[in-house]
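Re: the request from the purification team.
They wanted to know what the chain is likely to look like in 3D before they choose a buffer screen. I agreed to run a prediction and write the result into the notebook, where they can find it.
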Amino acid sequence: MIQRKRHALWAPSVCTALVAMSVPDSYAAFVGVDDFEGYGLLTEVSDAATNPGSNWFQENANVSDQVVLDPAGGTNQVLAFSNFSGGDHALWNDEFNIPAVGGVGTIFLRARLDNASPNLSFGLTDASSPGGFGSLHPQFAFRENATNFQVRDAGSFRTIADIDEDAWYNIWLVVDNDIDESLVYIQSDDDADFATFQQLSVGSPIDFRSDTGPTTDPLSKLLFTSGDADVVFFDDIFFDPTGANLTNPIPENPIPEPASISLIALGLLVAGARRRR
């Protein structure tokens, strides 16, 4: 559910002139999925009674997916996601589609950690009724402690960034469903280590989770799944189903310079070389 936020979503494309946007807002080929402005505070995005028409669904009543005020202050609304019952339970949005053959798409979102020990993963799934962590194919995680941004690379986790609590991060997830690999990019105005837009895991594309098998169906849902009660905040979710997109759909944040787009070219060349092995 995209509404007009405190900032107007008008921005120049890296290569094109300024254009007006309508709901759902888009930037370049990005389409707005949710900025959480259209919900009542403290309602759950998956609650059909209070938020009819929402494209969010939860596995069961054991997750909390409340809309709250931005912990950084102001009137901006964000999603606060956690699990309060143990186990791993899921929340998903079904406005995604990356085909299994030739499919490359980009998810942009903002994330913020609130504590020292989250156990939350997010990514994409092809499951019709997702469950917990095992439903993910590309899997990205905040786990073990709040400074670990990790990925599930085939059969094991590895840390790709040391990040801070109480800082917002812009994250780009470029997902290639044809060769079962991902690339990750990050930038933050709140963390000097990531003030400049950069690729994580440079030169080493990230394989999809191996125990879920190769994908033969479209990746159709953005899935969040949590194993504990520690809160992670999300906001400004966008999706480009047409390919790799490293532009920034939030104009108040720095837009990567055109030269930085060469990073994605390098990553895709590496991925292509791996596929031809």
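For the purification team: The CA atoms of residues 203 and 266 lie 8 Å apart.
Please add any questions underneath this entry.
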